[in-house]
Amino acid sequence: MKRNIIPLIVLAVLLVLPFILRDPYYLHLMILVLMWVALGSGWNLISGYTGQVSFGTAAFFGVGAYSAALLMSKLGISAWWGLPLGAFIAVLLSFPFGWISFRLRGPYFALVTLALNEILRHIATIWESLTDGMVGILVLQTFISKQPYYYIMLAIAVTSIIVIKLVMDSKLGYYFVTIREDQEAAESLGINTVYYKMVSLCISAAIIGFTGALYTNYMGFIDPKIVFALGDISIMAILVGIVGGVATIYGPAIGAFIMVAVQEFFRTAGFGLFIYLANLTGWSFMHTAVKYISQAHVLSFGLLVIFVIRYLPNGVVGDWDVIKRKFSFGKTGSV
Amino acid sequence: MDTFLQTLVAGVLKGGLYAIIGMGMTLIMGVMGIINLAHGQLMMVAMYIAYVCFTYFGLDPYVALLVTMPSLFIMGVIIQKYLLNPLAYIEAILPHNQVLMTVGIAMVLTEVIRFIFTSNYLSVQTSYSSSTLHLASLSFSVPLTIAFFSACLLTAGLFLFLLKTDVGRSIRAVAQDAEAAQVMGIDSERIKAITMGIGAALVAAAGNLLLPVYYLFPDIGRPFTTKAFVITILGGMGSTVGAILGGVTLGLAEAFASTYKGQEYEEMTGLIIFVLVLLFLPGGFKRLTKV
């Protein structure tokens, strides 16, 4: 019971947050954080718990996003129906590609997901009669205020965390971890590894596809470059998962918060700090710095990947004991 | 018929280049057991080095090979020694963290180059960039023909190196069984670093040979990384002969796709081949050639 207190407090704070946080910009950031909680949790299930590293978050995300957008633009059905449809199509898509790669041993799954991402981006770009190619699709937003989106996103984030917690507490979860730790041992225990990897991928794809469809509804505009982005979606999901904590329930929540903060820090040049400094001091190199910092967010992602894998491979939650030890070591100064 | 033959020629010439890209990758795959997802980005860096050599020092791209290959060799060694080798001692839950690391390296390389050179398209215009040779009714692009024969030379050189020299034998030993090689007194970490260096140098050569006929921009790395892993899977992981076959196959397939289907399908061809290979021939050509 004690373990559940902190998440419940956080949830309570998140529930009342829109009443305190009036600024739509910060509410938008919180919506993004919640979106990344869901996406990071989805990635964490297949990659963190089941050990099949996926570069394909953007593929499932984009498929979800496009199914919602196409429902609206081609059939005239409300894009909200795209949420279940997006999840369904993402799961359908995961079947053939999961089946191709899960039979094989080696880094095939990582490569297949990477390829899937590229293939879908090319299709969405080339098939102009359906997707309008690079022009993208515009969907009218249902709500003007950001609050409804905030609560919907919160519901999805919480649901995905609960779903993954339930899955991991059940027999399935033990199968997944066994497959990650030792496939041969899992098979000799009678676990059908291909089947259970598939189950894990399907749950993951459903969560990601659902979130992708909601993204369309919230942002109101998608194009192939945005939703099938390797760096901004797939790598971001991996970072959210790793920074927060691989194979931990609440890791992605923390990772999402950190990563959205990092992304926004670079996009706005230190939340406007550098622009403020530039205006204050009038130094021209400050303006140059602003320009470079706002361009550097992909670079920062790359450096973060290298840093995190090298020094924090299990994330803030996973390596919490290591971090704590380091800090207490510094404080006491004794061995 | 002419179109067909012309496409065939173009495909084979390009395939020669793809073969050396794939050979570096497959060597890395065989020895380290990882897919190097920074391969195309290493090539991009080499191309920018050659570009600088050409624009500021007037060095011909073919002479610049003497600059880019050693510098990329050193870069590969540094990457392996300081970024990839240490990962073996880190206890991580996540498997494949070396592959993830190469993705991080790829992003950093691309963005650093973007900082220095911006995203603008650059090109190297040499006197022979657009010249062609005519043989009967077929035309051969001069730079691509030179590239093809240089690729053949490099391939022969690599084979001699792997078969006849001590280091080459050590590389093959580590590829077969890293632990057994270690027991025999081979410093496998050193061999891994050298292999990464050779892989990087080979792909640098490919980039250099491609430079006279290609545009240059920071994002050029990613499609070539994709091509490299498609070739590696197609040829069979760790098989150098397979990489040559895979490279030529991909070159041909792309040439035919872009002639008969349209330019925009060129990049997708490789990806479709990749999926088909995993479906029908998961071991790649290695399963057929046995080497």
User: How large is the radius of gyration of chain B?
Assistant: 19 Å
Strand order of the largest sheet of chain B: 1-4
Largest sheet, strands/sense/barrel of chain B:
2 strands, antiparallel
Shape of chain B: globular
What can you tell me about this protein's structure?
The complex is a heterodimer of chains A (about 325) and B (about 290). Chain A is mainly alpha-helical. Helices cover about 80% and strands about 0% of the residues of chain A. Chain A has helices spanning about 5-20, 25-50, 55-75, 80-100, 110-125, 130, 145-170, 170-180, 185-190, 195-220, 225, 230-245, 250-265, 275-280, 285-295, 295-310, 315-320, 320-330, and strands spanning about 135-140, 220. Chain A has a two-stranded antiparallel ribbon. In chain A, helix 4 crosses helix 5 (about 110-125) and helix 4 packs antiparallel against helix 10. The radius of gyration of chain A is 21 Å and the shape is globular. The model of chain A has no long low-confidence stretch (mean pLDDT about 85). Chain B has about 290 residues and is mainly alpha-helical. Chain B has helices at about 1-30, 40-55, 60-85, 95-115, 140-165, 165-175, 180-185, 190-210, 220-235, 240-260, 265-280, 285-290; strands at about 120-125, 130-135, 140, 215. A two-stranded antiparallel ribbon of chain B has the order 1-4. Chain B has a two-stranded antiparallel ribbon with strand order 2-3. In chain B, a hairpin with a 2-residue loop joins strand 2 and strand 3 (about 140). Chain B is globular, with a radius of gyration of 19 Å. Chain B starts with a helix and ends with a helix. In chain B, about 55% of the residues are buried. The mean pLDDT of chain B is about 90. Classes of the chains: A mainly alpha (about 325), B mainly alpha (about 290). At the A-B interface, helix 4, helix 5, helix 12 and helix 16 of A face helix 4, helix 9 and helix 11 of B.
